[in-house]
UniProtKB/TrEMBL annotation:
Subcellular locations according to the entry: Cell membrane; Membrane
Protein name: Plasma membrane ATPase
Transit peptide keyword on record: no
Transmembrane segments: 137-159, 165-181, 320-338, 358-380, 720-741, 747-771, 783-809, 858-879, 885-905
Positions of the Cation-transporting P-type ATPase N-terminal domain: 87-161
Catalytic class of the enzyme: translocase
Length: 1051
């Protein structure tokens, strides 16, 4: 919807934003083009010029400017302060409900009618559904790997293998306990939402004004709203007071926690007020329109309750588990059938006997330690974050944060401070910024519970030396307030009579709405333009004037205070660091579009901020809306359902989404996001719905969370690659030797390998990690392919050991049990199978060569120490037959050297790996679709760069023509040599080609906007003048057109 703004005289505005830290003086007469603003287009840049005094202008302009405002009067009274339209979500009232809302305000509903409506609409409360803690604990025993481990535990009990049963059960309990304890502190989001509601309210019932519980309200009830009240239900203002009298002025409502609006909203008769918002000024009665889950806040609660999706990390673990289950069940099943058939009719062919043998292989093959190692690694990361005032409520969020590529952020209270502060003022009549602060302070009401008054007083007390170190905080040294008229909704100003103690002068100071103050001083077109320019940037203006010349009736304009909810001190830096780490930050706010664009500009984001209509446009498909979400820098004027939809659409595209917020309106999106982050000072609802809570002010700890999570991800992927490789190697080797030679290791050695090595790898949680510069991603296809490759090479080494020590050294693969010298092959294979796969973890730590980032001393010591223990076992005997020390040390050294060979293979596999390769080997429909989309985007990228090349060629030719038309500045000066010019042009083109080659497939997003910015930059380089100016203007027009909403979708 378009703002109701008239077109301002184009000779009265100067392009550009005010420089921070400088006041705004009267605008200079600079010609530019202005247009009426719309809600969907970026705000016009036709704004007042800051920091310009009369001496900064050439003499003719200087004289004109001084004459235009020296007396504070307007030369013409045609300009008016523009009224900025406030955009707000409108709730629809059904005709059936509308009939119930025409209650007599002075009588209210009777008890009989209340009972009927309670039966129809239910109580005004949000029901809470608390999960049974026992069921929650049992939930940690679900999942593919957990089910396989539980089956193995049951089988071991059936066959009487109580050692295996105890070990497996202990691992299950440890894994579940870690997750349950770490997440036990989480609170119920629905409970927090319920607690934000008012507990008591004043309501007309049976002709009497009574106080009752808010849960007893029904649609049609007439309630009284006063200063400081928490509104108990959605309602429609009636425009009358508690006893039926007409009210003066509007109701000022703070609904920032619900809608994200940074400024209190003025509500008049007929407007809707929302449950859980706060009355900041005024008094009115309202008729209740909606209660319970049907209210604005109730719908947010409902979105939270239906968001119970499986976490991203759990999906990954289940996919890995399903793969391991498949190969384990298939290979072990074949062995089971073979053993039953081969030994049929013998003692060894009994079902329980064969099942016991197979169980040992199954337990040894299953990565029983995988969930435990993962949980411990995440728990250590959560402890590291807690030291930085980042509390992790859901343990798996630590890993998922590493994969976040889009971070959606609320504005009010998250990116900004959620408090009005003094911005650069507009000044006139030679007044300074200190003057306007002092006079506005003198006209401020002491102790007023108003955010604007508080902002003015705070700014003055912080910036004026005069107001510091006072004995009484309400006194102003050198001045005395002799009378004070507080704010009146009818006059829209405050006024104070002041006496200067030093000079004895008495004067009046007025502070109020800009249009009122401008009218008070007799009109001022320059001030009107300044106010309109500030409004188009989303800044709240406040006029200040004082009497002068000894008169108590003639006011002189001092200037206009500008107020804004400023960004947090570290918000811009945090966004820049996130972008550098490959995380795209998008602002999603319920605040007004013009305010969102101004804040985005200050945060270093571009102004591609769209309103909420783009998210619910019935003419667009979900695919088109998703493209908006990907390419825009944010959305404004959204409600909780819209924020939820943005997150949902991005997730459907396969993107891991993070969400930061602080209010009730953010709670559904925080719950829906893969990683919900509640900032410092957030509401209980946001804190409960989030996965991570920031306890320190600011957003810089988000970057700490990203860095820590990426380190944890690398450790977890390293362990997963190692464990899957060792599992496949174990199954492949023993499948062959069992089927071919009916030989296997004794059960206690197999279990020892499984337990000892997994326990040792727990220290990977504190290992050094090489952080990825971009968001991490679980590439399951790549993980399994590399695991198979490394496992095959490990199996080749295992078969070499098996046959060499059998055929060369005479160590027979005996099938009978025993610990004599004839069983030495068991010791050889135990030491080899324990060490060779275990050393591979030194390689799987990195995608590059292992020496690029050496392991931590503790990690290296534990891994090597584990294998030294295995070495001593086979040398000195005990659990296994002795073998010579020389043979044992050679086996260990071969295993260590072999991991270096596997490291080289791993690096080459990573280098050759690509998505195209995966799509060719495993041609699933999803991969084919994704590959086609990537090819289409690559073609689009090439087309965009071709357009930029054409524009660059035009600009270079224009610059050449301008150079030809220029006259030599000095005698004997000549134009640039054509060969030098061509050489410069060639260098520019080479730089451009290099720039194109650096852009990868994942960086094509937003090329339309980048195209527009490139066009504008080239136009700026080309300059204006002569025959080139028309072409430059055309380029600028093209750039503006490409930035338009339709081109964001279709370019």
């Amino acid at each position: 919807m378009a703002d109701k703004a008239e077109i301002v005289d184009t000779n009265d505005l100067q392009q550009g934003h005010p420089a921070h830290g400088q006041p705004i003086h009267s605008p200079t007469a600079t010609s530019t083009t202005a247009a009426s603003t719309t809600a969907e287009a970026p705000p016009p840049t036709d704004e007042i010029k800051d920091g310009v005094s009369g001496g900064d202008l050439p003499p003719p302009q200087q004289q004109h400017q001084q004459g235009s405002y020296s007396n504070g009067k307007a030369k013409g009274k045609s300009l008016q302060v523009e009224e900025t339209e406030h955009h707000e979500h409108k709730d629809e009232i059904s005709p059936e409900l509308e009939v119930l809302l025409h209650t007599d305000p002075m009588n209210g509903l009777d008890d009989e009618e209340v009972e009927k409506r309670l039966a129809t609409f239910g109580p005004n409360e949000i029901k809470e559904n608390k999960k049974n803690p026992i069921l929650k604990f049992l939930g940690y025993f679900t999942g593919a790997i957990a089910y396989l481990i539980e089956v193995a535990c049951i089988i071991s009990a059936v066959v009487g293998d109580w050692l295996d049963f105890g070990i497996i059960l202990a691992l299950l309990l440890v894994n579940a306990s870690i997750g349950f304890i770490e997440e036990a502190k989480a609170e119920s989001a629905l409970d927090a939402l319920r607690q934000t509601l008012a507990l008591k309210t004043r309501c007309w019932r049976n002709g009497h004004l009574v106080e009752l519980d808010t849960s007893a309200l029904v649609p049609g009830d007439v309630i009284v709203l006063r200063l400081g009240d928490i509104i108990p239900a959605d309602g429609r203002l009636l425009g009358i007071g508690a006893t039926g009298e007409a009210t003066e002025g509007d109701l000022l409502i703070d609904q920032s926690a619900l809608t994200g609006e940074s400024l209190p909203v003025s509500k008049k008769k007929g407007d809707v007020v929302y449950s859980s918002s706060i009355v900041k000024q005024g008094q009115q009665m309202a008729v209740v329109t909606k209660t319970g889950i049907h209210t604005f806040i109730g719908r947010a609660a409902n979105l939270i309750s239906i968001t119970t999706e499986e976490g991203h990390f759990q999906k990954i673990i289940n996919r890995i588990g399903n793969f391991l289950i498949l190969i384990t069940v298939v290979l072990v099943g074949i062995i089971l059938i073979y053993q039953l058939v081969h030994f049929h009719g013998t003692e060894e062919g009994k079902f329980l006997t064969v099942l016991g043998k197979v169980l040992v292989l199954t337990v040894a093959a299953i990565p029983v330690g995988l969930p435990t190692v993962m949980s411990v690694t995440m728990a250590v990361g959560a402890k590291q974050l807690a030291a930085k005032k980042v509390i992790v409520k859901r343990l798996t969020a630590v890993e998922e944060m590493a994969s976040v590529s889009v971070l959606c952020s609320d504005k009010t209270g998250t990116l900004t401070l959620n408090e009005l502060t003094f911005d650069e003022p507009y000044l006139t009549n030679n007044y300074t910024a200190e003057d306007i602060l002092l006079y506005s302070y003198l006209a401020a009401e002491p102790g007023a519970n108003d955010p604007i008054e508080l902002a003015v007083r705070t700014a003055a007390e912080e910036q004026l030396p005069l107001l510091q170190n006072r004995t009484h905080k309400h006194d102003v040294p050198g001045f005395k307030v002799t009378s004070f008229l507080p704010f009146n909704p009818a006059t829209k100003l405050t006024q104070a009579t002041i006496t200067n103690k030093d000079t004895g002068e008495t004067f009046k100071v007025a502070k109020g709405a800009p249009q009122v103050i401008i009218k008070l001083v007799g009109g001022d077109d320059d001030a009107v333009r300044a106010v309109n320019a500030l409004a188009k940037r989303g800044l709240r203006a406040l006029g200040v004037a004082r009497t002068h010349g000894g008169s108590m009736d003639e006011f002189e304009l001092i200037g206009m205070i500008s107020l804004i909810d400023p960004p947090r001190p570290d918000s811009a830096e945090t966004i820049a660091r996130c972008k550098h780490m490959g995380v795209d930050v998008k602002m999603v706010t319920g605040d007004q579009l013009i305010i969102a664009k101004e804040v985005a500009h200050r945060l270093g984001l571009t102004r591609v901020i769209l309103d909420a209509n783009h998210l619910v446009d019935p003419t667009k498909s979900d695919e088109e809306v998703t493209e908006h979400c990907l390419r825009a820098d944010g959305f404004a004027q959204v409600i909780p359902e819209h924020k939820y939809r943005v997150v949902e659409l991005l997730q459907k595209r396969g993107i891991i989404v993070g969400m930061t917020g602080d209010g009730v309106n953010d709670a559904p999106a925080l719950k829906k996001a893969n990683v919900g982050i509640a900032v410092h000072g957030c509401t209980d609802a946001a804190r409960s719905a989030a996965d991570i809570v920031l306890l320190a002010p600011g957003l810089s700890t988000i970057v700490d969370g990203l860095l820590t999570s990426r380190a944890i991800f690398q450790r977890m992927r390293s362990y997963a690659l190692y464990r899957i490789t060792s599992t496949i190697h174990f199954l492949m080797f023993f499948f062959v030797v069992v089927m071919a030679f009916d030989w296997t290791l004794p059960a206690h050695l197999l279990i020892l390998i499984c337990i000892l090595n997994d326990l040792a790898t727990l220290v990977i949680a504190v290992d050094n990690a090489q952080l990825s510069p971009h968001p991490d991603k679980w590439r399951i296809g790549q993980l399994i392919f590399m695991s198979f490759t490394l496992a095959i090479l490990l199996s080749a080494l295992s078969f070499a050991h098996f046959f060499i020590f059998w055929k060369v050294f005479g160590y027979q693969p005996l099938t009978t049990l025993g610990d004599g010298p004839e069983h030495r092959l068991e010791s050889v294979m135990y030491l080899h199978i324990s060490s060779a796969p275990h050393f591979v973890i030194f390689s799987t730590r990195l995608t590059g060569y292992f020496w690029v980032n050496l392991p931590s001393p503790l990690f290296a010591a534990v891994i090597i120490g584990t294998q030294i223990v295995a070495l001593l076992m086979v040398v000195f005997g005990g659990l296994t037959p002795k073998i010579p020390f020389s043979q044992a040390i050679v086996i260990l050294l071969i295993s260590f050297a072999y991991f270096i060979f596997l490291d080289v293979v791993k690096v080459q596999l990573f280098k050759m790996w690509s998505f195209e390769l995966t799509a060719q080997f495993v041609r699933t429909p999803a991969r084919r679709k994704k590959l086609a989309e990537r090819k289409a985007r690559r073609k689009q990228q090439e087309a965009v760069w071709k357009d930029i090349d054409k524009i660059r060629e035009v600009v270079l030719k224009l610059k050449c023509l301008e150079a030809l038309n220029e006259q030599p500045r000095e005698e004997g000066q000549t134009m640039e040599d054509p060969q030098v010019f061509e050489e410069k042009q060639r260098r520019i083109e080479e730089e451009h080609k290099g720039k194109k080659s650096e852009i990868g497939d994942e960086e094509i997003k937003g090329m339309e906007v980048a195209n527009a910015e490139e066009h504008r930059a080239l136009a700026d380089q080309g300059g204006a003048g002569g025959s080139g100016s028309g072409a430059i203007e055309a380029v600028n027009e093209k750039a503006e057109h490409v930035e338009g909403e339709d081109n964001v979708r279709n370019a």
